[in-house]
Design a protein that fits this description.
heterodimer, A: mainly alpha, MetI-like fold, B: Rossmann fold, OB fold (Dihydrolipoamide Acetyltransferase, E2P), five-stranded antiparallel β-sheet, about 30% strand
Chain lengths: ~290, ~400
């Protein structure tokens, strides 16, 4: 009796910071934003309950086209990250030795020791018109005049792939570690070629890791602000920039909150569809 | 008239002759042959100049301790490794440079390697699909093979839902459904518990006889090799020490290693001497003399090793039996191990210990530690080899 009682107190003691953290920093602000997204008027003062903030998203083409563009680009980045990560993860787990694997992981982790901002500026130093690459090519005489490599969609996608690669590689490596080499050999022995081994054995086996990596990468890319803003062109608008504009430029917190919730709902819907398509369960993926 | 009479049987005879010839050919056909196969890893030769031939429908086992090179040899046949030199032929076709997925052999892996993300039917269908078998034909062949291995209706089960023995059969079915020329088995019974292993041995042998496929089975378990095989090769340090039928391996070991590795043996080190009446004796430690029947080594004084199996030694042998090596011995230990029970005895006037089989037929129930018993063995039961052991000085 006494023991159970003290156990509960200890549990509460440790649980309190977590509960407070969640309540004060996540739940309360979101409840307030949710309230704001359903009312009109400045900061929701004086206005009545309305759907206008949400309807505005669908009525104004710039909003939903930006959203669509962001979604398609995010899916594309996720797929590119996946295609790049699978061979790297496979190499690290199955081909490189245990020692080399640790070294490879450190190499992959190293860039993440500096902040995203610094990394993006690093790319900008290399790629801008007066940057390292441009000067190098000029010095070699391969280019006649400086070329601006920044501010287009391709370079933005490259930047996003670069910043999210690790979030795919790590979960894929952890599932591939448990893949017994004899499964690959058995498939080979039963007549499968390289392609069939990848399609029928390695990828299905790695699916939980691939999906958990994909969800993380997709969410990070969809919600990223810095990389699209700094590396994307003037007309490559990201949906997060729309939200930023509503809050900061137009001071329309109601619209901004509505966009925030739309981003949350629609990206969750995309993940749900992806899970259904690959027949994965969220509980397996999160393991 | 004569021409007509000759013509009638002539129309039948070639047909018959052909039939008999082809069945004879089928018997004699070599499914797998290895010629001077060597596999080196750096300076180390894992497989060192191995040659053998296996006829169609044989159950061939390679028996050896771990690290003897048997897995390396099997992986070369499967195609996962290329020989450093030598040739592997399957039905006469040279396998050099042929990828595993293009060889007419399939392998049952030690850990079985069933695909956990597929159900039983999909596991079995995997190889067939790679060959482009589809639809009704695919389903029919999967059901047929499931029936054959005694798992009808198991197709939709998940791999995690079936028992160890059932997994074993699925792994077999997955290979047999492809009708390979040679089926390779890499100690597939190792993961099973004892009772199930005994049962699977018999089942595997029966299955092999039913399907008639050539089986190459590698194991370190002599009982598996003995029970199932038509032919056993005992392998050590990358070489075949002996290749023979199981009874011959047991009764006529070709080398000291085979004598020690297959079954149990008491080992004696001594010198060969010719005794009275032209009989040969092995003299151990200058004191104990044991008759041997076949003096295969003409050189007297030659250092030899002699082996006598515990089950070849009689306890209280009948007085009327003549020519036995007889001695009196004190019982040191009684090792009770059900059907494999043994005595450790110390013969008089010798410091050595002997292992003697103790049949559990109640005849020897009254033997206790400290008792004196008469023991003896027929000289023909002992094997003798020229010694390479360093204990015997060659001075």
């Amino acid at each position: 009796m006494h023991k159970g009682g003290s156990g509960r107190w200890i549990f509460l003691l440790f649980f309190m910071p977590v509960a407070l953290w969640l309540l004060l920093l996540l739940v309360l602000p979101h409840v307030e934003l949710l309230r704001m997204s359903f009312v009109s008027g400045e900061f929701g003062a004086g206005g009545g309950v309305t759907w206008d903030n949400y309807l505005g998203f669908f009525h104004e083409p710039i909003y939903w086209t930006t959203f669509l563009r962001t979604a398609i680009y995010s899916i594309a980045v996720t797929l590119i990250v996946l295609t790049v990560s699978l061979p790297i993860a496979f190499y690290a787990t199955k081909i490189a030795g245990a020692k080399a694997q640790g070294f490879l992981l450190v190499l992959l982790l190293l860039p993440f020791w500096v902040s995203e901002l610094v990394r993006v500026y690093g790319w900008m130093i290399i790629l801008r018109e007066s940057g390292v690459l441009s000067s190098f090519m000029l010095a070699l005489g391969l280019w006649k005049e400086p070329v601006e490599l920044l501010y287009n969609d391709a370079v933005m996608i490259m930047g996003l792939v670069y910043t999210t690669l690790l979030f795919m590689i790590v979960p894929v490596i952890s599932v591939l570690e448990s893949l017994d080499d004899s499964l690959i050999e058995a498939a080979y022995d039963l007549g499968a070629g390289k392609l069939a081994i990848w399609r029928r054995i390695i990828i299905p086996y790695a699916m939980p890791g691939i999906m958990s990596g994909s969800i993380v990468v997709f969410m990070i890319v969809f919600g990223s602000y810095l990389t699209p803003k700094l590396m994307g062109g003037k007309n490559s608008l990201w949906f997060t920039e729309q939200i930023y504009n509503q809050f900061i430029t137009y001071f329309n917190w109601n619209q901004g909150s509505a966009f925030g919730f739309l981003l949350l709902l629609l990206s969750s819907a995309i993940i749900w569809v992806a899970l259904k398509l690959t027949r994965q369960k969220l509980s397996d993926v999160l393991k | 008239m004569t021409a007509g009479a000759a013509a009638a049987p002539a129309a039948v005879a070639p047909d018959l002759r052909e039939k008999r010839l082809s069945s004879l050919e089928r018997q004699m056909q070599i499914d797998l042959s290895a010629q001077n196969v060597v596999r080196r890893f750096g300076d180390f030769s894992a497989v060192d100049d191995v040659s053998f031939e296996v006829e169609t429908g044989r159950f061939f086992s390679i028996l050896g301790p771990s690290g003897c090179g048997k897995t390396t040899l099997l992986r070369m046949v499967a195609g996962f490794l290329e020989p450093s030199s030598g040739r592997i032929r399957i039905r006469g076709a040279d396998m050099a440079g042929v990828e595993p997925n293009r060889r007419p052999v399939n392998m049952v892996f030690q850990q079985l390697a069933l695909f956990p993300m597929m159900d039983v039917a999909e596991n079995i269908a995997f190889g067939l699909r790679r060959r482009g078998v589809k639809g009704a034909e695919l389903r029919k062949r999967v059901e047929e093979i499931l029936e054959r291995v005694g798992l009808p209706g198991f197709g939709e089960k998940k791999i995690s839902q079936i028992s160890g023995g059932q997994k074993q059969r699925v792994a077999l079915a997955r290979c047999l459904v492809l009708r390979p020329v040679v089926l390779l088995l890499d100690e597939p019974l190792g993961a099973l518990d004892l009772k199930l292993r005994e049962q699977m041995k018999v089942e595997l042998k029966n299955l092999q006889q039913q399907v008639g496929t050539t089986f190459i089975y590698i194991t370190h378990d002599q009982s598996e090799a003995m029970v199932m095989s038509d032919l056993v090769a005992v392998m050590r340090n990358g070489r075949f020490e002996q290749m023979d039928t199981p009874p011959n391996i047991y009764n006529r070991p070709a080398t000291p290693f085979v004598a020690q590795f297959v079954g149990n043996n008491n080992r004696f080190l001594g010198r060969l001497r010719l005794a009275e009446g032209g009989r040969a004796v092995v003299e151990e430690g200058g004191r104990n003399r044991y008759f041997i029947s076949r003096p295969e080594h003409p050189r007297s004084e030659a250092p030899v090793e002699m082996y006598v199996r515990p089950e070849a030694i009689m306890i209280n042998p009948d007085r009327r039996l003549s020519g036995l090596n007889r001695m009196t011995a004190g019982v040191k230990t009684v090792l009770f191990d059900a059907g494999n029970s043994r005595l450790i005895v110390v013969p008089e006037n010798s410091g050595r210990e002997l292992m003697v089989a103790l049949p559990q037929n109640r005849q020897y129930d009254d033997i206790r530690v400290g008792d004196r018993v008469e023991i003896g063995w027929d000289p023909a039961s002992a094997f003798c080899f020229l010694s390479s052991a360093p204990e015997v000085d060659h001075a």
